[in-house]
Amino acid sequence: MNLPEEFLSKMKGILKGEFEDFVKVYDFDSYKGFRVNTAKVSVEEFMKRIGIEFEKVPWCEDGFYINDEIRLSKHPYYFAGLIYIQEPSAMFPVEALDVKEGEKVLDLCAAPGGKTIQIAAKIGPNGMLVSNDVKPTRIKALVKNVENLGLTNVVILNNKPKEIAESYGAYFDKILVDAPCSGEGMFRKDPTSAKKWTSNHPQKYVNLQRSIMTEVDELLKVGGEIVYSTCTFEPEENEGIIDWFLKKHKNYEVVEIKKYPGFSDGLEINGNLELKKTVRIYPHKVKGEGHFVCKLKKVKESGNEWVFEPKRYQVDKSDLEIFEKFCQKHFDIDFKMFENRVFYKKADKLYLGYEGPFDKITPIRNGLLLGEVYKGRFYPSAHLISSLKFENLKKAINFSVNDERLIRYLKGETIENVENLKGFVAVCVDGFTLGWGKAEGHIIKNYFPRGWRLE
Questions:
Q1: Helix (H, G, I), strand (E, B), or coil: what is residue 411?
Q2: Backbone dihedral region of 244: left (phi > 0), alpha (psi from -120 to 50 degrees) or beta?
Q3: Is the dihedral of CA 132, 256, 248, 218 positive or negative?
Q4: Neighbours of 223 (CB within 10 A)
Q5: Cα 71 from chain centre
Q6: Distances (CA, A) of 133 to 62, 85, 274
Q7: Mean of the pLDDT values across residues 289-296?
Q8: DSSP letters spanning 173-189
Q9: Spatial distance between the Cα atoms of 309 and 22, rounded to a whole number of angstroms
Q10: Which of 185, 322, 373, 453 is deepest in the core (most CB within 10 A)?
């Protein structure tokens, strides 16, 4: 592929003797990958069910390579939320963040949601993830991925970092800043981005990256950690941002990240040897595209160590009774497992979510969208069914992957009511939940969301 001459000149200065090897990789296709959604299925169970051997991504325990011959994005397991298609190098920032079960995490630049999904699975139902993106046009994809993959522990925001900092305070154990960048590391994956690149392209992102990093200190607990990542090679957007941040925030230190075979040290800038602890990923040295990853630890207070006062929610008892009646009929589940959640209602929609500083900021989604209470009836959401396990269901159709009715269901078509069921019925594949149907007479109306369907 044709790369901008000014870009090549810069990379020759960075890579020196490795430059020729770097250029050669652009004659080949980029690597593709997927991760198993361990919030719904273990890696071992998925591999047993799929019956295909995949090469493992070395730096991600649930990540695997895939070639174009295997179209996992058309497989029923994809629609059941068991996997997420993701570029292999993009899996590393969350692995570097090393989130733990039960932690409170902020994904500050989250859409379309690949890293959110990765974090949410790791922190489990007792953790909480605030997933934010400032661009309203990108939120739709984030919501779709969170709901389709059955994640119940995510609060989705569409706010500026400053607004989140003013609302939450120093609330989070870990923060991921996968910053908007010039995208040089993705030229092979997205050749159109190379055509749009200009020599001043990287510089226009520096001020944006600085403005984002300006707010993270007020959001992080003492002892907490930040991972800053980009998919660009530009030093000003990578080591330059970290060097600038450390000069302004003396209460942080760079944390050494485990480097896998093929990973490179960061570049020294302004004599700052600590920057060598950061990670550079080059496509000529690993099976993946270009990335930069840095981990920072907040080692002492900065004067703004406060946490929000939660807004309390009131839900009509009658609404909860309607919901509980539906649950008794359709599910075998104890919602006491969500002891750290609260029921609340927004418009007609009923949620099982989190208390938060929501007098100033309003979540797009808060935890689990249960469904809608309307005129004395409860209408369940696709998010609810995708979050449940087959053993939680009292009334379900469980298709095999090759069933002709399953394919028609995934396409949004009405299917025959062979089982002679009535009312709302869960639709599953091989014991994994997909969505809802509603049995009426000889047919089952299709409630699988339009944006989730097989095309």
A1: coil
A2: alpha
A3: positive
A4: 10
A5: 21
A6: 25, 20, 30
A7: 98
A8: EEEEEE-----GGGTTT
A9: 52
A10: 185
Average pLDDT, whole number, for the chain?
94
Residue 165: which residues within 8 A CB-CB, separation 6 or more? 215, 216, 218, 219
How far apart CA 103 and CA 97 sit, in angstroms, is: 12
Going 408 to 414 to 420 to 423, the CA torsion angle's sign is positive
What are the tokens at 192? 């159109």
* Cα dihedral sign, 61-252-273-14: positive
pLDDT in tens, 1-44: 889 999 999 999 999 999 999 999 999 999 999 999 999 999 99
At 204 the pLDDT is 86
Main-chain phi, psi angles of 377, to 5 degrees: -125, 155
Determine whether 303 is exposed, middle or buried from the number of CB atoms within 10 Å of its CB (0-12, 13-18, 19+): exposed
Taking 80 as the threshold, does the pLDDT of residue 57 lie above it? yes
CB-neighbour burial class of residue 434 (10 A; exposed 0-12, middle 13-18, buried 19+): buried
What size, in residues, is the chain?
455
| Band (304; pLDDT cuts 50, 70, 90) | low
Q: Which of 55-64, 75-84, 195-204, 249-258 has the lowest mean pLDDT?
A: 195-204
Omega of the bond leading into 283 within 30 degrees of 0 (cis): no
Q: How many CB atoms lie within 10 A of CB 70?
A: 14
| pLDDT higher than threshold 80 for residue 337 | no
* Catalytic residue numbers, as ranges: 231
Write down the pLDDT at residue 390. Answer: 96
The predicted-structure confidence for 72-101, as pLDDT tens digits, reads as follows: 999 999 999 999 999 999 999 999 999 999
Rounded Cα distance between 342 and 363, Å, is 14
User: What's the rounded Cα separation, in Å, for the pair 445 and 416?
Assistant: 9
Per-residue pLDDT of 230-285, as tens digits, reads 999 999 999 999 999 999 999 999 999 999 999 999 999 999 999 999 999 999 99
Closest CA to 233 of 172, 193, 169, 280: 280
Other beta carbons less than 10 A from residue 325's beta carbon: 12
What the block records as the tokens of 128 is: 């909480």
- DSSP 8-class letter at 260: P
Which candidate, 370, 369, 366, places its Cα nearest to that of 326? 370
Q: How far apart are CA 356 and CA 389, in angstroms?
A: 28
Backbone angles phi, psi at 376, to 5 degrees: 80, 5
N-to-C CA span, the chain: 31
